[in-house]
Amino acid sequence: MLAYFRLIRLPNLLMIAFIMYAMLYGIIEPILFYYGFQIVTSNLQFAFLVLTCLFLSAAGYVINDYFDRKADHINRPNKVVVGVKIQRRSAIILHSVFNFIALVLGFALAISIGKFWFGFVFVLISLLFWWYSARLKKLAIAGNILIALLSGILPIIILAFLHYGSIYIQGPHSMGFAFALKQIFKVLMGFAVFAFLFTLIREIVKDIEDVKGDIAMYCKTLPIVAGIKLSRQIVAYLCFISFALILVAYFIFIRNFEFVANDFLSLWYIIGLVAFPVLYCGIKVLFSVKKQDFSKISKMLKYNMLTGILYAIILRIIIISNIL
Prior knowledge:
The protein is an all-alpha fold.
């Protein structure tokens, strides 16, 4: 059983579920409430959306390990699952079952909100996961960008679902529904850009970490094509860009939102737990040489992403306190 949990990356799946509910209850619901609106959405429908994304992600992890098994024998021999603890045939069957469940749930959701085309979004995501694992992952930067886009699209999928599948009740002191949605869109797009950049950075770091096995598999990842030194520099530049964008996001957008006005918690949280850690990773990667160094940076970036997502909970606390 533990082998299956490792195969589907159970902690990652739990994080995806947390992100989706954090977007709903940490951002969308309190901002609408601040402007005098109440969102009425089916808990079952939203659960279908979450489960669809979880099964698609699990299928993506399985097929990724299936195609990566030879490289993993070199890069992380003690963590190989497919072909060692789980048969290759079983992995393919599991991948197919997960995709089938995801698409059934996805189309059921699409039909329930009256937008059948919405189901094909999940078909596309499933195909992109396969394409990434089978082909694109072995190419310089292209695979990194695709997986980063798939990470960044999550808040947008939630926004699309809520747009088509929810009812909004206007309260006696409502202040403009279109304006409220515009504010939500800005915040969610900020999280989407954050997820895209941090995933892109982490994927390149993982490619540097796995360069030995990728060479043996004749992959053309960025560290192999451009060299580890240039790849380190690219990671550093992306970290510095992310640091700058986080500062811009706070000083230009976040502190000017009326629902977080005069709030110092956001300032210290964003600067201390989101901005400076990525700056530190950017500096550290320039002086990293060993595989263990890049492994540590990858873990730091993962925790950095988590603290960034947790800001959604901080935001809810701030908004509710400003209402009361």
